[in-house]
Amino acid sequence: MPFPTRSSIPVVGAVLLVTVTLASCSASSSQPPATSLATTSTTASAGTSTISPRPPTTTSTYPTVAASQQLPVSVESDSQMRAEANNGPTSSVLLPSSCKLVGSTVTAMGAYQGGFAPNVYSRYGDIVVLYVFGPPSPGFPQGPQLAVSSAQDSPPLSSGTWQVSTSVSTSLDASVGQPARCVVAAQPTHDVQLAP
């Protein structure tokens, strides 16, 4: 059997070299380098941080609202009026609906028997007066008087509805107590000489 010539050996070697080189290039192109993956991950993470920034912290401020308290309210009786030298017409014409304490202000609201006050109240110049009493205590079975509305804050008796307010001290002695009840009365502002 004849031996291969020298000219045929390089050809075979060249074919093998080309095959190995192509296989290496194919493997390299199918798998990206690890550094490329790391860079892509870092870029994606940074992109997420840029798209969704952390919202700024905000502080909401709300106005302070004074606590309110409903107080029982009644009409001054005729006997109480006489004891206080109130000789005007009866206070029973008043129909109180509420009395509320808000902060240091006490406000009573209501209407009139029959919807209006008769003319006799106008002759006396009657106004709606608000009294505020504390809880019963020794020496004050009905409670001490804490406040009374002034003539300027007391509306005249007329028709429809009425509203009257007064203020109580914010530094009341502990032994006196806080406002516990309200009383409204028709109080004359002048004497009237009626015809016999």
Question: What features would you describe in this structure?
Answer:
- The chain is an alpha+beta fold and 196 residues long.
- It has helices at 9-30, 34-51, 78-83, 119-123, and strands at residues 68-70, 73-75, 94-102, 105-116, 127-133, 145-148, 159-167, 181-187.
- It has a 4-stranded antiparallel sheet, with no helix packed on it.
- It has a domain at 68-187.
Q: How many H/I helices?
A: 4
**H-E order:** HHEEHEEHEEEE
Computed over alpha carbons, the radius of gyration is: 48 Å
Average residue pLDDT:
75
* Envelope shape: globular
The proportion of residues in beta strands is 25-35%
Structural class: alpha+beta
Number of strands: 8
Query: How many angstroms separate the termini?
Result: 169 Å
Report the sheet with the most strands, covering strand number, pairing sense and barrel closure: 4 strands, antiparallel
Low-pLDDT runs of 5+ residues are 1-30, 32-51, 57-65
Report strand order across the widest sheet: 1-3-4-7
Helix content: 25-40%
